[in-house]
Amino acid sequence: MSNTHSISAEHVVLIGGGSTNALTAVRLAERGFRVTVLEKAKIGNGSSSRSAAGIRAQFSIEETVIGMQYSEWWYAHFHQHLRTPPEMSQSVIQQNGYLFLYEDPEQAAPVWKHGVRREMAQTWQVARANVAMQQLIGLPVEILEPQEIHYRWPHIEPDRLAGATWCPSDGFLFPQMIYMEGFRRAQELGRRFAARNGSDRSDPARRPHHHS
Ligand SMILES: Cc1cc2nc3c(=O)[nH]c(=O)nc-3n(C[C@H](O)[C@H](O)[C@H](O)COP(=O)(O)OP(=O)(O)OC[C@H]3O[C@@H](n4cnc5c(N)ncnc54)[C@H](O)[C@@H]3O)c2cc1C
């Protein structure tokens, strides 16, 4: 705690009003930093409003899988973390799953294209090995055979497929909710710090400012 007090007088200026700084502002404000956010246009002006905002934990490096698993969990509990008023708690994440399809090398490339077939077989093998690694660290990911894929999604023809990997906790985010709610919470934390500490010197300094 004494650490928190010793850093609380620091003033951090964040440049840019997108998702990154919305959440950074919250974390800094939670730790007692003075936060100023400078935005050259308007909140959400950059990539945050242009993103496909896909989020997934199906990766090939263990640390990334763990990090993204945490990230999906964090966004699934976003409104609890940010203490969003119930009337403003719209969805921030849609976990509708990610399905990666892999082609059957023998169907997808002619017999004389050995290199292509070998590469495709290898890709499918690596995908299966990744699933084994991901399952070991608790990701609810599965390997699906072609018939199972067709059964679950009848519009997908199974003939050319070697299989698929499917993780139902992957999905996409609603970035506008991230930055709007993030900055709302950062401002709220500023007000709360001011009320709690109450001194003239710290009040204005502890309130995160947004300039647009
Ligand atoms: C087409 C597209 C698809 C994407 N798809 C995905 C996806 O599926 N999954 C995923 O995780 N990510 C995706 N991304 C990436 C993701 O959108 C970005 O990583 C994220 O939005 C970055 O957020 P940010 O807050 O760091 O930056 P930004 O949202 O770009 O915010 C930067 C802000 O800084 C402001 N600014 C810039 N210069 C200055 C200055 N000198 N002074 C003051 N303000 C300044 C800008 O106006 C802007 O508002 C995608 C991005 C794009 C463009």
Short description:
This protein is an alpha/beta fold and 212 residues long. The chain has helices at residues 2-7, 19-30, 62-76, 78-81, 105-108, 114-136, 146-152, 175-197, 202-206; strands at 11-15, 34-38, 54-55, 93-94, 98-103, 142-144, 161-167, 171-173, 209-211.
Keywords:
212 residues, alpha/beta, three-stranded parallel β-sheet, 9 helices, 9 strands, 47% helix, elongated, disordered N terminus, disordered C terminus, binds flavin-adenine dinucleotide
First-residue to last-residue Cα separation: 34 Å
What is the strand tally?
9
Percentage of β-strand residues: 15-25%
Q: Low-confidence runs (pLDDT<50, min 5 residues)?
A: 1-6, 192-212
Count of alpha/pi helices: 9
Sequence of strands across the biggest β-sheet: 1-2-9
User: From the helix content, strand content and strand pairing, which structural class follows?
Assistant: alpha/beta
Radius of gyration: 23 Å
Mean pLDDT: 88
Largest sheet, in brief, is: 3 strands, parallel
Give the SSE string: HEHEEHHEEHHEHEEHHE
Helix content: 40-55%
